[in-house]
Amino acid sequence: MSPRRSKAEAASTHQAIVREAAEGASEIGLEGISIGSLASSLGMSKAGVAGHFRSKQELQMEVIEFGARDFTEKIWTPNADLKPGQERLLGCLDTWYAYSAGSPFRGGCLMTSISTEFDGRPGPVREAIAETWGRWTKVLRADLDVAIEAGELSPPLSPADTITAIESLATGVNQQTQLFRGKSPEKTASSAARVLLGMIG
Asked: Is the pTM of the predicted complex or chain greater than 0.85?
């Protein structure tokens, strides 16, 4: 086996472990994933899994990065080239709510799940999750500000409160989907967002 192939296979295995860890974290949380459960799911030895990470926290951090990349690729990327302001904001929100209702992860939206798990736990993992969500909040706020300045939107709440409210709708969609098996909660969220943005009286 050539060194190049060996390196590529190691990288592929590493990615498969992180992917399975992300799936598990969406169901049982970052704290719930273990080397043993990952080894069993992937048909690997515990040593084979453990050798890819220096600590459980390193694995958790990579899961956060994996979730953030998936979130960006599925929600931001399809809307990145839309006109800044109302058009892109609505595109992002509709895509986000649809993503929350039809998450690619077994346990629903990974980022929502782990943010709920760690919101009251100080430490590096919580900080990484908060930083990731903070970047997304800034993206939404930037388009909201552009839309308000251009006269496209006139929300009844302050911009900060509006962002908080429309973000909370995504959490609600995830809960309605996972806990109550709600029917098309993303459509309800999209309509509610338009009320919050002052588009529907």
From this structure: yes
Which helix (H) or strand (E) is 141 found in, with range?
Answer: helix 124-149
pLDDT digits (tens, 9 = 90+) for 89-113: 999 999 999 999 999 999 999 999 9
Domain ranges of the chain: 56-196
- Give phi and psi for 121, each to the nearest 5: -115, 100
Contacts of 63 (CB under 8 A, 6+ apart): 18, 21, 22, 25, 30, 33, 110, 114
The CA angle 129-115-154, to the nearest 5 degrees, is 90
pLDDT recorded at residue 201: 66
Residue 194 in tokens: 């338009």
Q: What is the CATH number of domain 56-196?
A: 1.10.357.10
Beta-carbon-side half-sphere exposure of residue 94 (alpha carbons within 13 Å): 11
* In contact, 100 and 166? CB cutoff 8 Å: no
Phi-psi region of 121 (alpha: psi -120 to 50; beta: other; left: phi over 0): beta
* Residue-level pLDDT at 181: 85
Asked whether the beta carbons of 60 and 125 are under 8 A apart, the reply is: yes
